[in-house]
Design brief:
Length: 139
Amino acid sequence: MFPPRSGACAREIDGAHTELLVTEYADRVLVVATQIGKLGTIFHLTRNQSSDFMTLDADGADSLSRCATLIGRRDDDILHACARAIGDGLFALGLEKPVVCALGLRRECGTAAKRAVAMTCVEMASELLGLANERSAHA
């Protein structure tokens, strides 16, 4: 798949200029959300292999995805949850490829803002990848 399918936009989220990028490669999808002009913390998300049912993650929360921090902050559980929400949202819509997710969010970015970032990323990625269309076609 060359060139890779890609889309970018900018949104105002919780008063902060937020740039979003989604790129689909042959073997994975890259999702970037930044408020600081840098990649920030990079996560790798894979779909849980245990059927279509949600399983409990290490924290005891339901999750469709496994989330590993590759590079960056490991002291922000809400940032980790934001990345996991992006993976869960995309996998719930039928994405089969792993996701590399880079989140460069301000330190003062609160829980509600991180939730809004995750929802915006899922929305943008699902449109670019045609996931919403695939799901409604199968319904």
